[in-house]
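**User:**
My hope is that you can spare some time for a protein that puzzles me. This is the protein in question:
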Amino acid sequence: DIFATKNHDELLFFTNLGRIYNLSVFQVPEGSRISKGRAVVNILPLNPDEYIVKLLCARDLENKYFVMLTKNGLIKRTSAEAFAKIRSTGIRALGLNDNDQLVYCDISSGDNTIVIATGLGQGIRFKETEVRVMGRQAAGVIGIRLYEGDYVIGMEIISDNNDILFATELGFGKRVKINDF
């Protein structure tokens, strides 16, 4: 993901363990055009088995929602204002069950369409308003029921009826109209 920020914007880091960290843009070390950059583990207090799933810019979050999805198909929609004050050690963004982890997170306006895809090629589309708004500690509700051995690989939040491109790990692609779901 690429996005433009200002020095005083806040960056929100969502991790696979369901935690959220924040950092001001000016706290990110500046590098030259040819430098590699700096590892996030040197900037944020991450646990050894924790990694960043999504990075979002926290600008203009009034009347917006965070939509989070776990590997086992649970989805959660929370008001972005619930994450206004984040400690330097991070806060819990959602409660996770055993053997589950956060795989996707994004910002939505509240009236979008959500498309979820799984590793075995299943998909589902529904209106975002079908998922109720929950508090920070909630685990979420079932977003997609999975077959045995299946898992969620991604989610997209779509604002209108365009096409969506699905790509496999072997490089095959398929463009589908959203209305076909």
